[in-house]
Amino acid sequence: MVSDLISRHWLTLHGFVVLLGLAIYVIGSRTLQQRRRPSAAIAWVIGLIVLPYVALPLYLVFGNRKLVDSRQAARPSRALPHAGEAVGPAAQLRELAAAMALPAAAPYLGLNVHQDGAEALQALHALIDGATRTLDLCTFVFGKDAVGDDIARRLAQRARAGVRVRLLVDGIGAYLPGLPKFRRLTDAGVETALFVPPLRSSLRGRTNLRNHRKMAIADGERLWCGGRNLAAEYFRDDAAGAGRPWIDLSFDLRGPLALQAQRRFAQDWAFATGAPFPAEGELPAGGAGAPLGQLIASGPDQADDTVYTLLMAGFFASRRRILAVTPYFVPNETFSLALSLAARRGVAVDLVMPAKSNHLLADMARHRALRDIAASGVRVWFLPRMIHAKGVVIDDQLALVGSANLDERSLFLNYELMVAFYAQEDIGRFARWIERQRDAAAGYEPRAPGLVRDVAEGLLLWLAFQL
Length: 467
Description:
There is one protein chain. With 467 residues, the protein is of the alpha/beta class. 41% of the residues lie in helices and 18% in strands. The chain is built from 15 helices and 18 strands. It has helices spanning 2-32, 38-50, 52-62, 89-99, 117-130, 146-160, 183-188, 256-273, 306-317, 333-344, 360-365, 367-375, 408-412, 424-439, 451-464, and strands spanning 106-107, 109-113, 134-139, 164-170, 191-195, 215-218, 222-226, 250-254, 292-298, 321-325, 329-330, 348-354, 379-383, 391-394, 398-402, 406-407, 416-421, 442-443. Strands 1-9-17-15-14-10-12-13-18 form a nine-stranded mixed beta sheet, with helices on both faces. Strand 6 and strand 7 form a beta hairpin. The radius of gyration is 23 Å and the shape is globular. It starts with a helix and ends with a helix.
């Protein structure tokens, strides 16, 4: 009798928790316009029904995907191409970017595509040492090693010289090398901030939304950007046990595009520190005939999934080739389908990645998508070294280079930063860089998975990569 009574009360309590969790999920998703993919939505609903005591706290901590309501986002009028204007990946991307309220393309000069880590580090040192008014750096990881220590010393030196120096490090990435210690920097006058530390803002669902953007801007005139974190393995082999440095892709340039990047940094800084958001202003005009680049920010602060949308549009508009490099490849089905359809209609699609990355789960989860796209004619290449580069070239009209990986976390959750290049000569330089990595790689040979492997891949894709 007593046991029956306890059982009925427990079932009543359990049902209440389930209904509460589902109500919070539905109201939150509807109110904040989260627009989750079906697989993610199903995973959350099943979790809230089956394991509400685990899933509900996880949802409260990790549940938010967007911090901007798409219904309230600015929507400029759609500019259609003029009669006779060429229509292709570049034109479509710029039209879509305008529709998503992204900053317009801006001129730049002196693009330098770094051929290796030593050249990238030399360019970063030159940018830091040459700053005279302002110096802003954003990174996911700030290493506690020889490279990180040397950069910290240079930042402190610039601050003591009267330059306003700001360093923004992701609130989770800052702890990956160990407990962050910025006391020496702050004592020298460097302003430091962590982007959403793990013990702050968790009840608003932001803990899982990480700032993966990487950039350094000097005086609003020079920009250093790409996929490299500020740690030894991204530049040289002097980190203990690191062996050869990771292969990565970065670049530097100067001009109005750098000022646009500085404004992007200022917005991230304001969000992280609570400072007032900077006012928008007109960009200075570039030189006549200067090439154009476009800053593509993606993440919870954008109403749309900007990088994903632009890549999908570019894949469907491609006519000759798609050349991509990424350390992690865990896409959704639509992304894989876009690559497969491009290959089936005769587009040369090449995808370069490491044979073994630094993330075992990503390596395990990628094979289902790789088998599908390889069967349709996509050529997949495995490099014997770790490659951390992120870049996509479409035909000879567009190159997208920056911090975003071709996985669901980068494309749908992280704060990312890509730069779109439209000048054919510069697109060719990025394409040749990726081709050099492809030429040193071996072709991927898909193998049919066994039952256990197939189930494990499905669980990883369904659960691990939904958060």
